[in-house]
What does this fold into?
Amino acid sequence: MVGRGYHIALGREHAKRLFSLKDDQEILKFLEELKASPEMKKSGRLLDSGTAWDALHRCLTEGELDPNAGEFPLNHAILGGKQLHHGSDTAAVLIRPDMTRFIADGLAEIDEADFRQKFFSLNKESYKLPIGEKEFVQIWIVLQDLQVFFQAAADNLEAVVFTAKYQA
It folds into this structure.
């Protein structure tokens, strides 16, 4: 089972602080601080994708929860990019500022009918969440939010970090 996923747009100061951290636990603590920050929420630099990130990554890549699956730029929207955390319980992935424009443009080109087909074709053996019209609409809305988020990050030349906890 997967936990809630978050995309965090990093301004220059936050990026410098993140890059100065060497320990996994320090990185995770810093990301938790950013997720809890009212300033980050108000500024639109934090996107909570709930558990939709799991289906999103699968639909944007090759159908599995594999950080190496799919092709750039869509495979970098969720789990692709530089792995910041090396544990098995949490994802923390960095997308460089020079990549955010490509991801925003790639997300903007997604066709709803094609995405729908990929969602309803997910492997029910590996994807354990419900697959229905209600879930598709929720995931499609999160995809639209993600595109807007990456567009803003690209416009501001910001790095993006995706983070999520895996639940046992």
Q: What stands out?
A: The helical segments are 12-20, 24-36, 38-42, 52-60, 97-108, 112-120, 133-155. Residues 152 and 158 are 8 Å apart (CA to CA). The radius of gyration is 15 Å.
